[in-house]
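TL;DR need structure tokens for one chain.
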Amino acid sequence: MNKIGCFIGFFCVLILLYSCEENANFDKSLLYGKWQQKTEFEKYMLDGTGYMWNEAEGVFENEAQKFEWTLENADLTQIHLMENGGKVPKLYKVTELTSTSFKYKDDYGVSHSFQRVD
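>> reply
TL;DR here they are.
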């Protein structure tokens, strides 16, 4: 009986942690600006557009990949605008957003951690 109680308690803690993350409400005004993770950069504009580039791949800001973005609670959506007119949506979960730090992860558990550089 004690093992069942421990299992139920553990399960309740997991649900509580999951619901806290899901209900996070981040202030999108903190996202505006340029962010850096090693050689990768992302820039978020006030009008819901942005662009990203990776200097390690020889891509610089003047030739960056454009995207449109929205942030609803903790759900970050980037819609990448391809040169041929195609659009590729990417969905992320924001885990931290402050005036200096920006972190998000995808559905596969890949995390990204940026620092403000402007």
